[in-house]
Amino acid sequence: MLGAILAWVLVVVLIVLLHETLGTAFPWMIGTAFLGFIITLIRLGANAQKVICPECESVYTRSKLGGQCSACGLRIMQHDP
């Protein structure tokens, strides 16, 4: 996760260092890099709520109120029966 953000920061630094060489394409390159960074943040945020079930190892999405595994029915913070 940190690697993807760091990669975009390095791309922006490289674009800024080469702004004389890029000429009129510089604003477009910065805009494209910014858009890619935003898309990366959105994708990372969308996957932040995914958890792995300790019982059956399947991946499911939890909500604010908890969550329940779609494969085995185990709930988050469920006490052992």
Structure in words:
It is a single chain. By secondary structure, the chain is mainly α. Helix content is 51%, strand content 7%. It has three helices and two strands, in the order αααββ. A two-stranded antiparallel sheet has the order 1-2. The longest helix is centred in the middle third of the chain and has 21 residues, at 26-46. The protein is rod-shaped and about 60 Å long. The model has no long low-confidence stretch (mean pLDDT 83).
Sum up the structure in keywords.
mainly alpha; two-stranded antiparallel sheet; 2 strands; 81 residues; rod-shaped
Strand content: 5-15%
| Low-pLDDT runs | none
What is the helix fraction of residues, given as a range?
A: 40-55%
Tertiary shape: rod-shaped
Radius of gyration based on Cα positions? 20 Å
The total beta strand count reads 2
Distance between the termini: 36 Å
Query: What order do the helices and strands follow?
Result: HHHEE
Strand line-up across the major sheet: 1-2
Mean pLDDT: 83
Number of helices, where a helix is a run of at least 4 consecutive DSSP H or I residues: 3
Major beta sheet summary: 2 strands, antiparallel
Coarse structural class: mainly alpha
